[in-house]
Amino acid sequence: MNRLNATKDFWLAALRADGPALQDAVAETGPDAAVPACPGWTAADLTEHLTSVLRWVREFAPRGVLDRPAARTVPEPRPAWPEALDQLRREMTGAIETLDALDPDLPSWTWPAQAKKAGFWQRRMAHEVSVHRWDAEQAAGRATPIETKLAADGVNEVLDTWLPAGYRKGPTDLHGVVHLTATDASYEWFVRLRGAGIALLDTGTILDTDDHHPRAEASGTASDLLLTLMGRFETDKLTVVGDPRLISALRAG
Fold first, then answer.
1. Cβ–Cβ under 8 Å, residues 226 and 146
2. Are the C-beta atoms of 99 and 12 separated by less than 8 Å?
3. Average pLDDT, the chain
4. What pairing do the DSSP bridges indicate for beta strands 197-201 and 239-242?
5. Mean pLDDT value of segment 133-151
6. 25-34 long-range contacts, Cβ below 8 Å, gap at least 24?
7. Residue 4 above 80 pLDDT?
8. Count of alpha carbons within 13 Å of 128, Cβ hemisphere only?
9. What pTM value is reported for the model?
10. SS (H, E, C) the chain
11. Before 244, cis peptide (omega within 30)?
12. Contact present, 152 and 4 (Cβ < 8 Å)
């Protein structure tokens, strides 16, 4: 497990960088452009999704309560494209301002049972926007990698939040230790799969026994690791040794 020391300021800085880049990409593609990373979606669908998510978080996160908020909604009919882009811009700005003003320890509803603090949403929105920024840029034919430390924290988020909360898209009947390594920085992860169970292991606790030896290892840039775990790439984007099904079992969904 990696101690990245990611903080509110780090996540907000990522939002301030990726938010405008995402807006530029969807504006460049036009509303009808296909978004290959999100099958069946157009740029207009992606814009609507992000606008509604940002609005939803902006409205409930500052309330300081643990009650589940009302379900996220999208306006009907869909606005004309110039208005949709303006709504995305306004919600991005508003969400960043709101999240920046929040104490990370403020109580908040979150979908993982163990979080329950506003800092969850500062982190979650940074990764929501960074991955969808990549999606939008891919649709525009010019995808750039996710920044290394942000991507490494995104891998952490998949392994310490998404998968333990049950948001797994890969097979849940496999057993064994998986070792992930970022080739562009000193980050690595050991994960133990026990069927539907998952544990992110501290490197200092790996025992030198056969039971703890990795059955699969995957290496690649932090960005490629994250995008693979988030379903944007197949495992062949990575260098894999051992059973590739164990890598697929770490996909979030």
1. yes
2. yes
3. 94
4. unpaired
5. 98
6. 25/133, 25/136, 25/137, 25/139, 25/140, 25/142, 26/85, 26/88, 26/136, 26/139, 27/85, 28/140, 29/136, 29/139, 29/140, 30/81, 31/81, 31/84, 33/139, 33/140, 34/139
7. no
8. 19
9. 0.95
10. CCCCCCCHHHHHHHHHHHHHHHHHHHHHHCCCCECCCCCCCEHHHHHHHHHHHHHHHHHHHHHCCCCCCCCCCCCCCCCCHHHHHHHHHHHHHHHHHHHHHCCCCCECCCCCCCCCECHHHHHHHHHHHHHHHHHHHHHCCCCCCCCHHHHHHHHHHHHHHHCCCCCECCCCCCEEEEEEEECCCCEEEEEEEECCEEEEECHHHCCCCHHHCEEEEEEECHHHHHHHHCCCCCHHHCEEEECHHHHHCCCEC
11. no
12. yes
Q: Note the pLDDT of residue 113.
A: 86
Percent of the chain with pLDDT over 70: 95
Considering only CA atoms, which of 64, 65, 67, 136 is closest in space to residue 103?
64
- Residue 172 to residue 108: CA distance in whole angstroms: 30
Q: How far apart are CA 216 and CA 187, in angstroms?
A: 17
Contact present, 249 and 242 (Cβ < 8 Å): no
pLDDT, mean of residues 93-110:
98
List, for residues 195-225, the tens digit of each pLDDT value: 999 999 876 555 544 456 799 999 999 999 9
d(CA 128, CA 106): 21
Sign of the torsion angle spanned by Cα atoms 107, 87, 45, 135: negative
Burial 155-181 (b: 16+ CB within 10 A, else e): bbbbbbbbbbeeebbbeeebebbbbbb
